Amino acid sequence: MAGEFDLVISPRLLHELQTVLAREKFRRYLTYEDATEYVSWLHHGAEVVRDPAESVVRGAVEADPDDEYLVGLAGSLGGGDSYLVSVDRHLLDLPDRAVKDGEGRTLARILTPGEFLREIGQEANRG
User: How many domains does the chain have?
Assistant: First the structure.
């Protein structure tokens, strides 16, 4: 149905999110308990897939190799209407803001959360 999407995450992404949200600087936005509850909600509400093999994505994000697994995760979803939603500059600065295969085909587009919401809103209106 137009405007709907499947949220896909991996164990490494869940761990990274839990680690980042546990930082003291986020206490002004949410408690540690709220952060833990949110990560748990994602774990149970999203489709959890295996982390991509590191050898598949090596060199994809030269500015921050720690983000390479996100590119691998987005690229493993089969292409088409797949998105990698992020506010990370290292990802948003990738060429064409896209995850591509070895032949240059786009597997996933990289969007900010606002861009993604607009995209699915437009799909719902077309639907």
Answer: 1
CA–CA dist 7, 5 (Å, integer): 6
119, pLDDT greater than 90: no
Nearest in space to 76 (alpha carbons), one of 113, 49, 103, 102 = 49
Domain containing residue 84: CATH number: 3.40.50.1010
3-class SS string, 88-100: CHHHHCCHHHEEE
Q: What is the mean pLDDT of the chain?
A: 84
pTM: 0.79
State the amino acid at position 102 in one-letter form. G
CB 72 within 8 A of CB 8: no
